[in-house]
């Protein structure tokens, strides 16, 4: 256990051979379809951006708009990097237990919306249900794993040695980065 947390285990994928699981996912898809298109605002330094929108459509039904997101500009990216730089000191000073708790809250949020998020993968990427559900499970796994990792690092266990891996440690400066995914 890490700081009172149960050991890490992978989030189990949906057993799609079970009718109840298939019905749960179909219900999530129907609910999502009622809410389309979703709005995904771009936010920089706590304020939503205005401007042109990116339009995401369903590859299986190109006339169906899945989501609209504000298109960020290079100036918006620079402003986001500057805002992150200003916030870096406070985040770095945040105790590892608090950072781990934030990751675990995010995992719980994703877990609570698992059907909805898998449905979104189905609509936006034309993923089969099994892959969409597995992607959501993987997101939960990352959040849970790294929450435990933050606590281990804080206890002086600076290097994970996961079975089947050989890991080495070297220190290098890190800072704020903008990533366009």
Give your account of this protein's structure.
Helices cover 51% and strands 13% of the residues. The chain starts with 18 loop residues before the first helix and ends in a 27-residue tail after the last helix. Helix 1 crosses helix 4, helix 3 runs antiparallel to helix 5 and helix 4 crosses helix 5. The longest helix has 26 residues. It has 181 residues and is α+β, with helices and mostly antiparallel strands. The model has no long low-confidence stretch (mean pLDDT 90). The strands form 2 sheets. A 3-stranded mixed beta sheet has the order 1-5-4, covered by helices on one side. Strands 2-3 form a two-stranded antiparallel ribbon. The chain has 5 helices and 5 strands, in the order H-E-E-E-E-E-H-H-H-H. Strand 4 and strand 5 form a beta hairpin.
